[in-house]
Design goal:
- The chain contains 24 helices and five strands.
- By secondary structure, it is α/β, with parallel strands linked by helices.
- Strands 3-2-1-4-5 form a five-stranded mixed beta sheet, sandwiched between helices.
- The radius of gyration is 29 Å and the shape is globular.
- The C terminus is likely disordered.
Length: about 475
């Protein structure tokens, strides 16, 4: 070790340390326990090396430090390095946006996850885990805001650059007085707060007209009549098999997932004949009568668009049947009423989307070459004129793969317009990353590892675009033979 950088022993130790980091990174990426390095990976390496390369080569593998504490330390170092790189990139980005949510883990602790979107150095929009932290007491908006404030102050992040803030719409997040979104707007009033579009689907299920709501109620009763009984489930499955049905089971639905209702109704419609036989056999006369009279309503409430049935084959079958012709107008009226009420609900829940200035910016982003110059802000009008007369840029827009790529990479010669577009493109539309992140958390912090602080493992497991600088970490570390 005293021979310096030219010594063979130092070179060997550096390779061993580098390998230790690489294996620790793989352990974190696979969400496995830290002990797996010493209990499984190293024994496998020793056995394979000895069998293929001989005992002398296996002795070198023996020097790789992979104990539980060592792996934990390596993961912590790499997590810190990724965070440092991330903070640096966020500071260089003209805008960044946050996605925030919390949930309870297996240890009954409230885990807060915050993701960030930013413009990377290669002019592409990236998304990464910014912060993973336990909420020690309550999970109110003020508690989450304090954590965010402390993090911003610690890393000197600018509130003025926060373009958007996305949550799941819970009262603690979107409350008008003490909700987190309100507190964020107090720090930066121009921040666009968004409600996850996936959770907005819940609104669609709560605005059904009377007839469609009744059809949904009957559908749920039909599914429950079978799924709530193990015997009925087995009997119905056998009946479907004997009738050569394409499916053998009905589906449940999730209250907050509008599309899952559509799947449930579609399956119910596909198995309607088998269901009739089952209801008759079990003497469920009321449900049988409702099923016979409500076929069109069941399909219509699942998926229909007014006067256009080309993409709804199930409904088309019934519409073409003379027996159901009389229901067509009622279905159209129900759907029109549903859409009208839904539009009113969206306007009530999300009033910021009706603002004229935002509508103009949206049109500018979608197609900047068709926007009237007088409609944009005065400081951008002259630039927009040059923009619209740039033939090369127009050609790039027409052949660009997507809007995000065009505004990030092609429109760099028009900074004001580009900055305006990027501010809106940076905003999260869903909390999908949080859902994905919490699934990873459940794998990392399971019942056997419920005392683990998962923050470092989470950062490595969820890192999309930033890789730890292992070579730099190896140079900074001191190889310790005692491990």
């Amino acid at each position: 070790m005293k021979l310096g950088t030219s010594g063979a022993r130092f070179e060997t130790s550096e390779k061993v340390l580098h390998t230790s980091y690489e294996i620790s990174l793989l352990i974190a990426k696979s969400k496995k326990p830290h002990t797996i390095g010493e209990t499984l990976i190293k024994p496998c390496l020793l056995k394979a090396t000895e069998e293929i390369l001989g005992k002398e080569a296996a002795k070198k593998i023996q020097d790789i430090p992979l104990s539980n504490n060592t792996v934990k330390s390596r993961i912590g170092n790499m997590s810190q390095d990724i965070e440092e790189q991330l903070i640096c990139l966020i500071k260089k980005s003209p805008w960044f946006a946050l996605q925030c949510d919390e949930s309870t883990d297996v240890a009954q602790c409230c885990q807060l996850l915050i993701f960030v979107r930013f413009l990377s150095g290669d002019n592409t929009i990236k998304k990464e885990l910014l912060l993973s932290q336990v909420l020690e007491t309550t999970s109110k908006g003020v508690d989450v805001m304090k954590i965010i404030l402390d993090y911003f102050e610690k890393h000197k992040l600018m509130w003025e650059n926060l373009a958007g803030f996305c949550t799941d719409g819970a009262p603690a997040m979107l409350g008008s007085r003490s909700g987190l979104a309100t507190l964020v707007k107090q720090k930066n009033p121009t921040t666009l707060t968004t409600h996850c579009i996936i959770h907005r689907q819940a609104l669609a299920s709560k605005t059904l007209p009377k007839d469609l709501a009744f059809a949904m109620k009957i559908s749920i009763q039909l599914v429950n009549a079978i799924k709530n009984s193990a015997l009925n489930t087995r009997v119905f499955q056998k009946l479907c098999a004997n009738m050569d049905a394409e499916h053998e089971t009905l589906l449940f639905h999730t209250e907050t997932r509008w599309l899952s209702k559509g799947n449930m109704l579609a399956r119910l419609f596909e198995l309607r004949e088998e269901l009739k036989f089952f209801l008759i056999d079990k003497g469920m006369n009321y449900l049988y009568e409702q099923l016979c009279s409500g076929n069109v309503k069941l399909e219509g409430s699942a998926n229909i668009f007014v006067k256009n049935y080309s993409v709804f084959p199930n409904l088309r079958v019934l519409i073409d049947d003379e027996h159901y012709k009389c229901f067509t107008e009622d279905i159209q009226n129900n759907v029109l009423e549903h859409l009208r009420i839904l539009k009113e609900e969206f306007t009530r829940y999300f009033p910021e989307y009706g603002v004229v200035d935002i509508d103009v910016v949206k049109k500018l982003i979608r197609n900047p070459f068709t926007v009237e110059v007088n409609n944009v802000q005065e400081e951008m009008q002259e630039e927009l004129i040059d923009f619209q007369n740039d033939s090369n840029l127009k050609s790039s827009f027409e052949f660009s793969t997507n809007l995000e790529e065009f505004w990030c990479k092609k429109a760099m010669g028009y900074p004001n317009i580009r900055q305006t577009a990027l501010r809106f493109l940076m905003v999260f539309s869903t909390t999908y990353l949080y859902e994905q992140g919490f699934s990873s958390l459940l794998s990392i912090q399971n019942k056997q590892r419920n005392r683990l602080n998962p923050s470092d493992d989470m950062r490595l497991a969820l890192s999309n675009s930033i890789v730890p600088r292992i070579s730099q970490l190896v140079k900074e570390a001191r190889p310790n033979k005692s491990h």
